[in-house]
């Protein structure tokens, strides 16, 4: 017995824009000239109906930006990013100041040819990787789910807006 495929309208993807990369962007013309193919918006193509107005689409983004969910995503980002950036800059400046103001301390040998300055410099790299990991971990746990929900909200509102615009254009043609 053949397996039945699910209805494509019922399938929800993890990301509504997974395949909405810039179509035509960076593609070369087939004439070998190396010039990028110009992308023409659907509204600019002759013989086709125009989509929703840019003002209506902008209204969706403004509505989402004013929403409590968006504000919470931004607040969560700022609560992590601002202290992390300040701490890293203080640590970096402390290293630079110590290297210039305390050359005796920085030149103190720790093990063989390795001195305090070398260990502090390597610690700069380590803290960069640690901060990157902490940022991605924080984003994954605290912001990505809410941001994806906001993306879906925008996607569904845009789809609804486009459907309404095309339906009204079809009615006007009749």
Automatic annotation (TrEMBL):
Keywords: Membrane, Transmembrane, Transmembrane helix. InterPro entries: DUF485 (IPR007436). The keyword Iron does not apply. The keyword Ligase does not apply. It holds the Pfam family DUF485. The lineage of its organism: Bacteria, Bacillati, Actinomycetota, Actinomycetes, Kitasatosporales. It comes from the Bacteria. The chain crosses the membrane at residues 80-102, 114-135. PANTHER family: INTEGRAL MEMBRANE PROTEIN-RELATED, MEMBRANE PROTEIN. This is DUF485 domain-containing protein.
């Amino acid at each position: 017995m053949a397996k039945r495929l699910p209805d494509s309208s019922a399938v929800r993807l993890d990301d509504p824009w997974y395949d909405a990369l810039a179509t035509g962007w960076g593609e070369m013309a087939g004439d070998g000239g190396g010039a990028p193919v110009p992308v023409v918006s659907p509204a600019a193509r002759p013989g086709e109906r125009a989509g929703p107005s840019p003002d209506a689409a902008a209204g969706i983004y403004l509505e989402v930006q004013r929403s409590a969910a968006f504000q919470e995503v931004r607040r969560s980002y700022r609560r992590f990013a601002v202290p992390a950036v300040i701490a890293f800059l203080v640590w970096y400046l402390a290293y630079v100041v110590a290297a210039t103001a305390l050359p005796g301390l920085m030149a103190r040998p720790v093990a063989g040819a390795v001195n305090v300055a070398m260990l502090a410099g390597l610690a700069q790299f380590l803290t960069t990787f640690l901060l990157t990991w902490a940022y991605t971990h924080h984003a994954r746990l605290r912001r990505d789910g809410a941001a994806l929900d906001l993306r879906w909200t925008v996607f569904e509102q845009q789809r609804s807006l486009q459907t309404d615009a095309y339906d009204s254009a079809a009615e006007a043609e009749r």
